[in-house]
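Continuing from the previous page of notes. For each protein in this section, the sequence appears first, followed by its structure tokens. Read the first protein now.
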Amino acid sequence: MFLIPDADTLVTYLKDFTGSSDDTEIKQCIFQAELAMRNIELPSLRTDPYTTFGTVGANQLMPIPSDMNKPILFFQQGTDGMPNSTGPWIVYDRIGDRDIITQGLIAQLYLTPVNVPAVIRGKFSEVGDNYQFLPYVGEGTQMNLYYYRAWNLLFTPILNNTLVSAAGTISSVTGTGPWTVIITGMSSTAGCAPTDVIIADDNTGSLGYQNVVTVVSVNSDTQITVTSTGLTVPTAGTIANISVLSAVPATVQTNEILQSWPEGYIYNSLSEYYIKRHSSDDAAIYKQKAIDAWKTVEDQNSLGKWSGGHTRLTSIFQPRRDRQYAVK
């Protein structure tokens, strides 16, 4: 069996298969294939909802996780995400943002279920960068989150940051741009050298938002001089986590899709390759292979109804009337 453990091996395989000698061409086809697979629902991308939690903030809003691709199911099974024996246990179905806002206007007319020994079907929806829930949940409530994670595209850069000092102080800022900045009070300057590019977290001071900061000189064990180039003026004060960026960033060599469904990468990349070569018949053959391979996965997803709530925007098991609330 031919194994494809990483992105470079995938490129080699596709070059051998197609007879191409152009790495860039093959990588472009892989990228096009990845764009076609961005919303894919593979089991390897699912979170463990019993160890994945979200915390509800003010106004019943919970920030959408940064690694989320698609929600599957959210539920509340007790305190701090842990089950209890008294309830309520609430399973949230996804609805549209207009519906969640409209229904939220009258939510205060209903009693919030407390210690009810029943499974209650609630609702959630995206509102801005957050999720909103009905019935309302208190600030600090932890929600169990079951969703498909987003995945990294192959060959995208990975910046390897080397921490130099956990803290430092911008003691001087001179110039009109680029600015010359002196950083003092560092725990160490080992690993810093002229021409290195550094980053740091803002505290009371800042090296400049999205500015490129380059080391000019290492003055001592606790002090360096840098230049900050960009649109934002650096400000004096404390900074944290001063790190040197790798001169040659690493790249993503594998992901969950390549490891658990390599046929998706192969068939879709070949389809894109033959589209680029204006061979529509060959492109159609490999696109159909990709579709057939995906049907096998999709069939298993459908059997378990993993996608039931978020593709229909409401659960197929949910009654159409809300009988679980009592009107005040």
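Done with the first. The second protein uses the same format. Note its length before scrolling.
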Amino acid sequence: MDGINIIEKKIHTDGEPYYFNTETMDKYGEIVGGLAWPETTEGFLVIVAVDFFEDTELGVRHMRVLEEATEFDINTFLKHALKLKKHFSPFAGTIRFYGNTTSLAMMELLDQFNRDRRQRGFDPFYLTEAPKTKDPKRNEFYAELIRKYTHPGGKILHFCNTALPSYLMGLWPDEISKNALDHTPVAALGYALAVLCTWKPRKRAPEMKAKYERILADNPIKEIISQFTERPELSK
């Protein structure tokens, strides 16, 4: 993986923005990163995207694991995260990484990493809090999420050049159920899935169309034209 970004941001004919992968020609509705800290084991980074178009047969949008990285050294780990972020961000844009922001020790190391980068004139790395990381039942939430999307018959989550499937198959179901977030590959994947599973198109174009249809129904054509051509009168 080089430092060149492979993603372009485009606008669909209905006005909806999407991400275009210049290598695979795939269209994504959203792309995010998942980060699990290297505390007692190697840290794990993953990039996951959700398809822009819905699979009408299954009634779902497929998700695709595009890239992964593992590292124990915190500085190298965060540099990997920055490279992934650049590689999968569109020009003049940036994707978000999600993870556990409650680890004070790790967040302090991130702050130190960013201070050093700012002093040298480099961009810092930002981490966004993943859903439900402060919830007492977070392990149950993420265990259920992983089961849902990695179920053999589901065919919703797809892996591209990643070792995640073999890692997941090597875990006993009880290991995921009881302590899903203790396994960094599971945690990083879960953080990304938790964000993407709620993604939906903004539907801005239909809303705008409906708005103008209401205007046309309620106002004469002449009045509509005047709204766009006549200047407002100055107060006397």
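What the second structure shows: The two ends are 66 Å apart (CA to CA). The domain at 7-202 is CATH 3.30.420 (Nucleotidyltransferase; domain 5). We return to this in next week's lecture.
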